[in-house]
Amino acid sequence: MKMDHIEKISSELKISASSVKATIDLFSDGCTIPFIARYRKESTGTLDEVAIGAIRDRLAQLQELDKRREAILESLTERNLLTDELSKKVTQAATLTDLEDVYLPYRPKRKTRASAAREKGLEPLARKLFHYESKDPHSDAAAFINAEKGVESAEDALSGARDIVAEWISEDETCRKEMRKLWAKRSTISSLLVKGKEEAGAKFKDYFDWSESAAAAPSHRILAMLRGETEGFLRIKMGPPEEEGVRELESRYVRGSSPVANQLKLAVADCYKRLLGSSMETELRTDLKQRADIEAIKVFVNNLRELLMAPPLGQKAVLAVDPGFRTGCKVVCLDRQGKLLQFDVIYPHSDKAKSGEKIIALCKKFEVEAIALGNGTASRETDEFLRGIDFAKAGLSAIPVVMVNESGASIYSASEVAREEFPDQDLTVRGAVSIGRRLMDPLAELVKIDPKSIGVGQYQHDVDQNQLQKSLDDSVMSCVNSVGVELNTASKQLLSYVSGLSSTLASNIVKYRNENGAFASRDQLKKVPRLGPKAFEQCAGFLRIRDAGNPLDASAVHPERYGLVQKMAKDSGVTVEDLIRNESFRKRIDLRKYTGDGVGLPTLEDILAELDKPGRDPRAKLEPVKFADGVHTMDDLHEGMRLPGIITNVTAFGAFVDIGVHQDGLVHKSEMANRFVSDPSEVVKVNQKVEVLVLEVDKSRKRISLSMKR
Predict the structure, then answer these.
(1) What is the set of domains in the chain, with CATH numbers?
(2) Number of neighbours of residue 533 by Cβ within 10 angstroms
């Protein structure tokens, strides 16, 4: 481990060097972010997952920089170009951009105009011009006329010499840094419609003639313009006014007014237009894209977390309905563990009486405690039908009907996961099961679907896919481990996100469970093939066993601390069960007596909190949203209506709201509050219930404008 990396990360992230070093050591030992954050607080100084992830990511960047530095030094050495001064510059380069600037003059090149001029022997003339050592450039250039080499005249010689000078300027490290500052400060990004693409590119209409400061352009507009360019509807241009760039170079390289200065002016203009300007534009494009990607991925990750951490109904017997008109509504009954018991089809929009009888019969037979209804086509009409059933008349208690966001359910139903779970059922049955299970436990069900199919992203297919996947995996893993996983009922997809478990180990756990029955203790995990000591250390604390012989197996207390809890109980003259049941026993414990051997107050306080509510679920309580009666389609909307709704997606420019008309409305960030809102995620979250005002209904474009202002 490089100590300078530790110091650099410590300085940049404002985290103590000792905490950074400890975190890096834990990563080197195979520990995961959730494990470090939860069970190694004393080592890291109680860093949270965000800080731990930032250390990991910055270390990876520095290691990539080191790899590039080593490759450059090797290349320079092989070509006998490495001097002590150059080696020092390469070694001291602090960023990848700085490193590439140092290397640029020495990088192997394809044939350029400058290299062709050098082959013609024009470099000495270029040096005379560049260093103002010529009094009469044309006269000096005449000495380089050589028809055999293709230099037919003094002007040919000067032209070639200027090509060499232009390349020198373009590759000058200091010049590039100054030019970067100009581009960062003064650049605009502009887009124009490609001629003849008005109709085909209508969705990019806002960008047919658009220009704004590149530094201030928000991520969603950058990504929209770049997508328009990729699809062939827009032409994008970036950079400051050309004359400013040329003027900046002239101020550095052109001195006074003379024949040599005139030659340098020509070289500078050529350099900017042909070399440096295009190079800076490429860099700016890359920087803007990276910035936009980071913002878009952040939006996606925040939305995904809110969706995954949505309140669960819990272990209840559920009847799930996938609504539809022509093909009817698919109905499935699930037991409290989410197992499919029966499926059927009802036609409430053509035969309400018979459909109602079927629903009542199923609810009686399977002692249904809640009805999950998908929010797709016909959902509002089906909702009215279900709420209109007189369960009391049938001798049943009222059964709540909960609308469930079914985004991605069709993706799941056609997936390998669904085929493996329900090989003998068709897509419609699988989709209805997914809707029911989402109500019971959104997290456990949604991990089976690619997050990009859930519908809470912003330009998700345009951003860096590797970075997006890494960030989404981090988010899912964080959610799964913060909630904890029931070992005896979890799917292998859910288990694969538990700290320390790969997809192979998750499959092995399920296979062992199927062959040997339910796990009776966490210690039994050690019998699972290929699940070694390190994997056990990483995963055990996040796995729960309900009704285990040892009550700690149902908690977030790590097995490595069982002995400590037992000592607390023994010192108090009670059992571990007594400590869990009786708060007064816990209050008498002096935690300071148990510090030492890597255990400090943070861990001890976590243990006591866990004993207070073993295996507690950090998710909020489920509170279903009820849409406005009589509002089913866009035809039922009019300006000025106030309606209840639920946030389905938060973007950089606003939030989308489901108001029960099968078309989400948009609350632009300017309409979110009676104050300026720069970041919508600071005001609303996915799944949040809101009240909105209808501002405008555009049926032709299927757009609904909403406001949350009071």
Answers:
(1) 3-88 (1.10.10.650), 113-300 (1.10.3500.10), 318-440 (3.30.420.140), 634-707 (2.40.50.140)
(2) 8
